[in-house]
UniProtKB/TrEMBL annotation:
The keyword Lyase applies. Keywords: Lyase, Thiamine pyrophosphate. Its cofactor is thiamine diphosphate. NCBIfam families: PRK05261.1-4 (NF003619). It comes from Parafannyhessea umbonata. This is Xylulose-5-phosphate/fructose-6-phosphate phosphoketolase. GO terms for biological process: carbohydrate metabolic process. Residues 613-811 form the Xylulose 5-phosphate/Fructose 6-phosphate phosphoketolase C-terminal domain.
């Protein structure tokens, strides 16, 4: 792959013939963009068109206009202009560039660009370089059986669809991390600039290093209007807007065009000169960094001010269109229905002079592509925009090196913080893969126990340093960890890092992962489209999220921090057997190690790992955990008292670390009563989903072997009970399931009381099991358990800590373990906020 020689200045102004070429590119791209929105036939407006239905020869007319006019014109001509100039820059400088289209509604610009640079025909040879190919290209846009209207993954060079606004800069900054030769051409829509995620992502210039990372060039596409309202940044004064960006650490340049009768060549000349000036400034930043300069630079950015819908008719039906919100989508909605609107459309298309751009046979004239970049430097071919091409597998340490010695000490050994063990493993993953793996977190890396990374690397930071180094622990201008108190930024930076061929993980408090619900939604859709339809997009590394500080242990924060519902969003993405989502609930540290290894090896997935960070026992050896992980669920023979093939009285099942601990204690109590128990643990939630909905789940035969054919099942689940009922609907024996989950009850309280409030404590579970089996026979025992729950609550109220009968229990076969309060609980809570 040839990605040129980066950061090379030119000694002369841009040649006039290149400016003329950029104008040809712009006109061709604009014509194709309008054509995609409006035309289904006669793509070059011939007067002697042979109608494909009737065989008759006719003039260009309303019959050539699509019945449904779908798409967005308003942002597209500005995007076409910027893409033309980006291509010129790449051609002249040999610079590796990825184009991030924040206004994703500019989809027609993206497809036009990839057709012009040749990459579209490489993946779609049916779009031939002739009139028939151009007609197919136009017709497919936003058309049944065709392509989406956004800059979607189906388009070469797309890396950021922009279906939801707000993530341009976070994706761009993620892409340039550890990518020192890459220039991210990041176009931000002025409507997008009003979103929360985008507003905070301006700050990310303080978390990159011009020596070790690439450069992001933000271009604010200031066309003045959203769907129906003006934009804030377009209405404030130039002085106020520039002061804002200077305050964000940028050197803003303002470019205006399209508001008077200036010729297009003059406009191109001015912008090319500005772009050269800006690029020279970027080169100086890179070369000063190479020379050892450490001061944070003011990175250049461009405020690109043009009319919305630039080059469309200025007025339609007597109402202002170019430079108005009316240009946002389809300015001529009745082009098929009324001759007046069709006449305006025809004039609009003719204004781009297509006869100067296409030959009689419908092929592009060579001069339209004369100065396009070549090979991998083409925007549609840059491997950074198809990151699987350059992705390399991680070098992973042996997880046995981090194993908690359950095989020697017995099931239920120790009091280990599972996420800390995972953090130790992840730190060594980082050590072995310093340039292709990163850790992200919203000020919670240490809180979520991943701080072992700081023994190897720092948090990358360039926003000033305190004179007292004790207040700036692990901060430096280089590092493999980035922390910014924004879940949006963590998610967006990691997405950009992955989409350009690298690997990573970020951690979040479980309740606040909802902040990025819609981002996860968008990334899942990108993966789904790729898996289903786009074989030329090579697999990227999976998006790994550790969700700790979870619902069951929020001793410091209480009800506001208690929400396990993110899992339900993920389940919505598990359709069509795309398998782009995996949901893990490791019960202990050793299983979390196995899960981490599997997640770091996987591709094209979103891996959500729900794991606690408080001290807890470890129940399985690494080898046992790996066997369970293969299927996603397994019988824990040591936790029950029935032999293989023997019918249990009840199946006790668990999914999640705290529910597993509580169900094990309940199993212990029930076995003491002579009840035959089979114990099942689920680590991959999707393993139990109905097999007809998920071909990677357990078969019905495997499901029945675990949960029985006609036996009651008591299931303790980390999140909401309805999630389990929905997953197993249609499974054998599903009517016999009784699920305990989070009941939306919580407070800042003790661990036992949190469980008691939600009927998840061992005493409630054991009582319910007895009620299922024979409420009359076990009435006395049920009452004992229920009464003790109230007694234990009152004990906590009176003393401020939990009852010893709760804290001092441990599993029966632990070798040499002291039955003390430390054996099963922790007096510490979260060290957050």
């Amino acid at each position: 792959m040839d990605l040129g020689t980066p950061w090379k200045k030119l000694d002369a102004p841009v040649a006039e013939e290149e400016l003329a070429w950029v104008d040809k590119y712009w006109r061709a791209a604009n014509y194709m963009s309008v054509g995609q929105i409006y035309l289904r036939s006669n793509p070059l407006m011939r007067s002697d068109w042979v109608d494909e239905k009737t065989g008759e020869t006719r003039d260009f007319g309303r019959a050539d206009v699509k019945h449904r006019l779908v798409g967005h014109w308003g942002t597209t001509p500005g995007i076409n202009f910027l893409m033309g100039h980006a291509n010129r820059l790449i051609h002249d400088h040999g610079q590796s560039v990825v184009f991030f289209m924040g206004p994703g509604h500019g989809g027609p610009a993206g497809t036009s660009q990839s057709l012009l640079d040749g990459t579209y025909r490489e993946i779609r040879p049916d779009i031939t370089d002739d009139e028939a190919g151009l007609q197919k290209f136009f017709r497919q846009f936003s058309y049944p059986g065709g392509i989406p209207s956004h800059f979607a993954p189906e388009t070469p060079g797309s890396i950021h669809e922009g279906g939801e606004l707000g993530y341009t800069l976070s994706h761009a900054y993620g892409a340039v991390l550890n990518n020192p030769s890459l220039l991210a051409f990041a176009v931000v829509g002025d409507g997008e600039a009003e979103t929360g995620p985008l507003a905070t992502s301006w700050q990310t210039n303080k978390l990159v290093n011009p020596l070790t990372d690439g450069i992001v060039l933000p271009i604010l596409h200031l066309n003045g209007y959203k769907i129906a309202n003006p934009t804030i940044l377009a209405r404030i004064s130039d002085e106020e807007r520039n002061e804002f960006f200077r305050g964000m650490g940028y050197h803003p340049y303002t470019f205006e065009a399209g508001f008077d009768d200036e010729s297009h060549i003059s406009i191109h000349r001015r912008f090319a000169a500005l772009l050269e000036q800006v690029f020279n400034e970027i080169c100086d930043i890179k070369w000063r960094a190479l020379a050892g300069e450490t001061a944070r630079p003011a990175y250049p950015m461009i405020v690109f001010r043009t009319p919305k819908g630039w080059t469309c008719p200025k007025y339609i039906d007597g109402k202002k269109t170019e430079g108005s919100w009316r240009a946002h989508q389809v300015p001529l909605t009745s082009a098929k229905d009324t001759h007046e609107h069709f006449r305006v459309l025809r004039g609009w298309l003719r204004s781009y002079k297509p006869a100067e751009l296409w030959n009689e046979d419908g092929s592009l004239k060579p001069e339209v592509t004369e100065f396009m970049p070549q090979g991998d430097l083409r925007l549609g071919a840059n491997p950074n925009a198809n990151g699987g091409l350059i992705r390399e597998d991680l070098e992973l340490p042996d997880i046995h090196d981090y194993e908690i010695p359950v095989a020697e000490k017995g099931h239920g050994y120790g009091t280990t913080e599972a996420s800390r063990v995972f953090g130790n493993y992840t730190a060594d993953v980082l050590k072995l893969n310093l340039t292709k793996f990163r850790v992200f977190g919203p000020d919670e890396t240490a809180s979520n126990r991943l701080q072992a990374a700081y023994k190897l690397t720092d948090k990358q930071w360039d926003a000033g340093f305190n004179a007292d180094p004790e207040n700036d622990s692990y901060l430096s201008t280089t590092g493999g960890v980035i922390e910014q108190l924004s879940e949006h930024q963590c998610e967006g930076l990691l997405e950009g890092f992955l989409l350009t061929g690298r690997h990573g993980v970020w951690s979040s408090y479980e309740s606040f992962i909802h902040v990025v619900d819609s981002m996860i939604n968008q990334h899942a859709k990108w993966l789904e489209a790729t898996v289903r339809h786009i074989p030329w997009r090579k697999p990227i590394a999976s998006l790994n999220i550790l969700l700790s500080s979870h619902v069951w242990r929020q001793d410091h924060n209480g009800f506001s921090h208690q929400d396990p519902g993110f899992v339900d969003l993920l389940l919505n993405k598990n359709f069509h057997n795309d398998h782009v989502v995996q949901i893990y609930y490791p019960a202990d540290a050793n299983m979390l190690l196995c899960v981490g290894e599997e997640a770091y090896k996987s591709t094209n997935k979103i891996n959500a790992i729900f794991a606690g960070k408080q001290p807890a026992p470890t129940f399985q050896s690494i080898d046992e955990a790996q066997l369970e992980l293969q299927k996603g669920a397994a019988t824990w023979d040591w936790a029950g008292n029935v032999k293989d093939g023997e019918q249990p009285d009840i199946v006790l099942a668990s999914c999640g670390d705290v529910p597993t601990l509580e169900m094990l204690a309940a199993s212990d109590a029930l076995q003491d009563l002579g009840i035959k128990v089979r114990f099942v643990n689920v680590v991959k939630l999707l393993a139990i989903q109905d097999h007809e909905e998920n071909d990677a789940s357990l078969t019905d035969e495997e499901f029945t072997k675990l949960f029985g054919e006609d036996v009651p099942v008591l299931f303790a689940f980390h999140a909401y009970a309805h999630t389990i009922y929905g997953l197993i609907h249609g499974r054998p024996n599903h009517d016999n399931f009784h699920v305990h989950g989070y009941m939306e009850e919580g407070s800042t309280t003790t661990p036992f009381d949190m469980l008691r409030l939600n009927e998840m404590d061992r005493f409630a579970l054991a009582a319910h099991a007895l009620e299922i089996l024979d409420a009359d026979k076990y009435a006395e025992k049920i009452k004992e358990y229920r009464d003790f729950r109230e007694e234990a609550f009152q004990f906590a109220v009176d003393n401020g800590y939990d009852h010893p009968r709760f804290t001092e229990w441990s599993w029966r076969d632990v070798v040499g373990q002291d039955n003390s309060a430390a054996a099963m609980s922790s007096t510490g809570g979260d060290n957050d906020e």
